[in-house]
Task: structure prediction
Amino acid sequence: DAGVIQSPRHEVTEMGQEVTLRCKPISGHDYLFWYRQTMMRGLELLIYFNNNVPIDDSGMPEDRFSAKMPNASFSTLKIQPSEPRDSAVYFCASTPGWSSGYTFGSGTRLTVV
Amino acid sequence: QKEVEQNSGPLSVPEGAIASLNCTYSDRGSQSFFWYRQYSGKSPELIMFIYSNGDKEDGRFTAQLNKASQYVSLLIRDSQPSDSATYLCAVNMEYGNKLVFGAGTILRVKS
Result:
């Protein structure tokens, strides 16, 4: 298995632009999570899906952030408009169930200038 | 009170020594506990999980859980320079069914 695949690995964008991050979970994993990691705040859960349905989006910082999972093999996290404080590493993770640990993707390092 | 607390470190140990990493959590109903290792610039990697009180050993790693004290720890025996990384404690909270991570402890193993 190729693991959790995220793209792009790095993204540099100007403030105000739209940013879309992509994730392909491990096949058969029913849960998909989006995390954000910064030095100040550590790993923060933004949103998670179960069987393509958003279950908890309480971690999404504001309306500028949105996430979708149109099918079992693909999810996107969109930021529109982007701001410099959104600069962070965004991780996608998946798991087959709650008793299992999560497998993380390689992350997307986002820089908003 | 933070949901999952760890000492940020850095924790410095000499090569060959035992490294002890600690974590406390706030949700008494938590059932699953995980330790992740994260090298600089890389993603978190699962190294241990524990569900029951007591010790669980896997090679040089031992996870210890005390639910009454809401405390979980990770021991690394015969520490190697390659163990130098940030170690993240993660707890599956009973409410909301989600994994909450601590801020991580930086471990430095000196050769």
Summary: Residues 55 and 76 of chain A are 15 Å apart (CA to CA). The mean pLDDT of chain A is 95. The two ends of chain A are 36 Å apart (CA to CA). The first strand of chain A starts at residue 5 and ends at 7.
